Amino acid sequence: MAAQSLDMQDVAMNGTRSNPNSAFRRLLAVIRELLGNPSSGFGLVVITILVLTAIVAPLIAPYDPNVIDLGNTLKPPSAEHWFGTDELGRDIMSRIIYGTRISLTIITIVSVIVGPIGLLVGTTAGYFGGWYDTIMMRITDIFLSFPSLILSLAFVAALGAGLENAIIAIGLTTWPPIARLARAETLTFRGADYISASRMQGASALRIIIKSIMPMCLPSVLVRITLSMATVILTAAGLGFLGLGAQPPLPEWGAMIATGRRYMLDNWWLVAFPGGAILLVSLAFNLLGDGLRDALDPKQR
């Protein structure tokens, strides 16, 4: 009977095991709720456009983003070049379109890095407690005591300039808030009846953490990751602006602003359009994160 009760609890906690369509239906319900909210709907639409733009960039970009045309340098926005050209005659609109690929790459890789690290550190610290919890949380506190850009600069200085090293540096500085959140969630679940039942049945700590605790923490962690993406975009742009992120001729938005700042007094479009892209994407992720928080946890409204 105890084993049967545990199996029933596992099925209840993991609905997809008994009904493969339940996760898909839940996803559709979340999307409908996001689109029903003007703010989160706007964020979802903008991010969807970002993804589609990155995929079809070669098809929609009017020019090659790296082709130099010294006969068309610093041209203002026009019918020929909607966003104008830079100091080397390159089409700014094309460079911004291709820049979505770099931004999306950074977001994707950083999410893959920080999600598992933060979730693992937070859940294990919250579950085991004691000296392990103290050590992991003190390490987390050290990371949190520095602004993410400053800490990323330190890592990039040690690893060397470049897009790959910038992504690693941003990933290493973004996981602490996720770990803190996962730990807090774990502390609320650790004493639950179904966790105690799992222990009585001889389930290992690793199995309990992976099968029972991590799925319960996942919605909150997903919201936190979404909200962190705005900071990731700004940090990547900051590193690019300082010449420590993507290197020329890659059309990274922060690097475009760094190059254009020398001409911005007379040629405003050099910084306005890439800066607007950074602002729009950062705002979209913030709005989507707020919407996800409401959709996944209505008590937070």
From TrEMBL:
GO cellular component entries: plasma membrane
PROSITE patterns in the record: ABC_TM1
Sequence intervals crossing the membrane: 42-61, 102-129, 149-173, 221-247, 267-289
Family membership noted in the UniProt record: Belongs to the binding-protein-dependent transport system permease family.
Taxonomy of the source species: Bacteria, Pseudomonadati, Pseudomonadota, Alphaproteobacteria, Hyphomicrobiales
Protein name: ABC-type dipeptide/oligopeptide/nickel transport system, permease component
Domain ABC transmembrane type-1 per the UniProt entry, residue ranges: 100-289
SUPFAM superfamilies, A to Z: MetI-like (SSF161098)
Membrane topology: Multi-pass membrane protein
Keyword Protein transport among record annotations: yes
Gene Ontology biological process: peptide transport; protein transport; transmembrane transport
InterPro entries with a match to the protein in the record: BP-dependent_transpt_permease, MetI-like, MetI-like_sf, OppC_N
Subcellular location(s) per record: Cell membrane
Keywords of the record: Cell membrane, Membrane, Peptide transport, Plasmid, Protein transport, Transmembrane, Transmembrane helix, Transport
Pfam families: BPD_transp_1, OppC_N
The keyword Transmembrane belongs to this UniProt entry's keyword annotation: yes
